Each structure stands twice: as structure tokens, then as C-alpha cells.
């Protein structure tokens, strides 16, 4: 059942989280949202793209793209609290796409204590922490629907419902903190990364996956790209996201493009076609069973593996 919410959404000025308030910016795309877009369905994970967004601007110094003005953080947090998790059939695909990045991160990790994921829905990625010898696994996620659907993958797994913030886990306590398709939703990414850095033990690793504004898909689709979305406050490229991680104290921050392997049905869902066209194509795919086919594509995601300095 759809949860009806009436939010008096106030807009607040934003600035480049890397270059600061003094950095100049140019309008990239005008706002095209309405008050009706602030609802449970729009702020649920992995929904069909609807191309609604705040005004989008680009920093003239580092080329970070961000929403300005954007929604009140407290109101946005309330929306995420009520957001639904309805992509359970995609979980194996998501796991298989992200696990290779974690595999790379483990090569740099000398201790496997606490594995933390932020914003991972029902916590299905915690299985990676169990299977790779982490002593404890923690999911931090604001959605109450996700909490209801959480199933511990081991006796050492737990769910913390809330927005990741200072003190939610002790300083210097986590061996690895990962957040996939989360940083673009954060209203203050630099402050968020500072807290991630503080929560990691010396030598600990942060693993991030998010959208790449310099990807070929974003260049071709322009405003029709699914990365330009009312949920996405900040968007990055390989260069400025590495600089952002290093600006909060990470000793190294390697960024690189990554592929995703999803079903034809999922790729169609992301395509900039009308709902009627998608429905017709989906019908054909089902008849031929082609909707079950999977293929790997560099669709516009980047990854960052950043390490906290060892003591």
C-alpha cells in the first residue's frame, strides 16, 4: 500500500562539496519537478527512472554536478525512512556486480574485523562479509521497510535503522565500510566521508560505487540520463571523487569505471523510452524469453577504493 505523505518541502542553497561556497557554478538543466514528486514511490530504491530533478548546476572548477537549490535534508530523510525496498529479484545481479570491487579492496586490507554497509536495503551484501571472514557485519539503512525484510546472514550480523551519522558506530572500529549508489543521495558528501574516515580503523578501507557524469551514456543521453534524478543531490566523475575522498584524510583513493551485468529487462527499465514503448518491448522479450538474458555493460558507474592511513 502506498504511504501518503504531505511534506512542505523547503529548498535550500547548495554549493560544491569539494570546492566550497566560493566556487562558481553554471546552470546545466532547469528544475522540472512538482510537489507531487515528494512521495514514497519516488523515494524508493531502484524505481523506474522518471527524469524528475531539481535545478542542476556544474562547478566551474572541478565539474561536480549537483542539485541547487535542493530539498531540506530533514524532509528528505523522512522520505527515505518511508521508502520501499522492492528489488529483491535483482539482489543476485547486484551482488555479482559489486562483489568484484570488494575483491579488489580486500587485497589492501590486513584485518577483517567489522564489515559495514551503508544504505544497502535489506542487507543482502552482508553475505560477502560473512563469506570473506569478517568477524561482524552491520547494515545501516533508514528504510523501515528494509528493516522488516532484514534476515541476518549469520549470528554476527545486525541491522541499524537510521541515517549514517557521527556516533552510529564507534570511531576506529570498522575494517571496511561500503556504500553502493548512496553517495549521490547524501546532502553533504564531504561531511559524510569525514564520518566514514573516522569510523574506520587505521588501514581500513572505504568502498564506494556511484554514477559517473563523464560516462559515455551520460554524454549521449544528456538530461535524459537516469543519473539526473530528484534523489541525486551530488554527482561525480573519476577525478573529483578521488579528490573528495583525499580531502577528508584518506591516504589513497583509487577511482575507476566498472561494468554491471544485469538482465535485458533491467537495462530496458533504465532506457529513456516511454512507458508504452517499454511495455511493448517487454511483451516481446517475454514471448521470446529474451528478458532472462544477461549481459555486461559499462553503463556509467564508477568505483572508489580509499584507504585510511595506517598508524
Tell me what the structure shows.
This protein has helices at 73-82, 91-106, 126-131, 144-149, 189-199, 216-221, 238-247, 264-270, 275-288; strands spanning 11-12, 25-29, 56-59, 65-67, 70-71, 114-118, 136-141, 157-161, 174-180, 200-211, 234-235, 250-263, 294-308. Helices cover 28% and strands 26% of the residues. The termini are far apart. The strands form three sheets. Strands 8-7-6-9-10-13-12 form a seven-stranded mixed sheet. A four-stranded antiparallel sheet has the order 2-3-4-11, with no helix packed on it. It has a two-stranded antiparallel ribbon with strand order 1-5. It is globular. It folds into two domains: 11-82, no CATH class; 88-308, Rossmann fold (3-Layer(aba) Sandwich), CATH 3.40.50.150.
Amino acid at each position: 500500500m502506498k504511504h501518503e505523505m504531505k511534506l512542505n518541502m523547503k529548498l535550500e542553497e547548495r554549493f560544491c562539496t569539494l570546492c566550497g561556497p566560493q566556487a562558481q557554478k553554471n546552470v546545466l538543466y532547469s528544475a522540472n519537478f512538482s510537489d507531487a514528486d515528494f512521495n514514497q514511490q519516488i523515494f524508493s530504491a531502484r524505481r523506474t527512472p522518471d527524469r524528475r530533478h531539481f535545478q542542476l548546476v556544474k562547478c566551474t572548477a572541478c565539474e561536480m554536478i549537483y542539485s541547487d537549490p535542493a530539498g531540506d535534508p530533514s524532509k528528505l530523510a523522512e522520505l527515505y525512512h518511508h521508502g520501499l525496498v522492492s528489488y529483491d529479484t535483482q539482489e543476485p545481479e547486484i551482488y555479482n556486480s559489486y562483489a568484484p570491487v570488494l575483491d579488489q579492496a580486500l587485497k589492501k586490507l590486513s584485518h577483517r574485523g567489522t564489515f559495514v554497509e551503508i544504505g544497502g536495503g535489506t542487507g543482502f551484501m552482508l553475505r560477502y562479509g560473512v563469506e570473506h571472514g569478517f568477524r561482524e557485519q552491520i547494515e545501516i539503512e533508514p528504510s523501515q521497510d528494509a528493516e522488516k525484510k532484514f534476515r541476518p546472514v549469520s549470528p554476527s550480523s545486525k541491522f541499524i535503522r537510521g541515517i549514517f551519522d557521527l556516533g552510529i558506530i564507534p570511531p576506529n572500529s570498522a575494517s571496511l565500510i561500503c556504500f553502493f549508489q548512496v553517495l549521490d543521495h547524501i546532502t553533504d558528501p564531504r561531511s559524510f566521508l569525514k564520518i566514514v574516515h573516522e569510523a574506520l580503523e587505521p588501514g581500513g578501507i572505504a568502498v564506494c560505487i556511484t554514477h559517473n557524469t563523464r560516462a559515455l551514456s551520460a554524454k549521449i543521453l544528456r538530461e535524459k540520463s537516469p543519473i539526473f534524478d530528484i534523489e541525486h543531490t551530488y554527482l561525480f566523475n573519476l577525478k573529483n571523487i578521488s579528490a573528495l575522498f583525499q580531502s577528508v584524510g584518506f591516504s589513497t583513493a583509487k577511482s575507476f569505471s566498472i561494468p554491471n551485468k544485469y538482465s535485458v529487462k533491467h537495462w530496458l527499465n533504465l532506457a529513456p523510452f516511454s512507458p508504452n514503448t517499454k511495455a511493448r518491448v517487454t511483451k516481446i522479450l517475454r514471448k521470446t524469453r529474451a528478458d532472462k538474458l544477461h549481459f555486461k555493460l559499462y553503463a556509467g558507474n564508477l568505483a572508489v577504493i580509499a584507504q585510511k592511513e595506517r598508524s
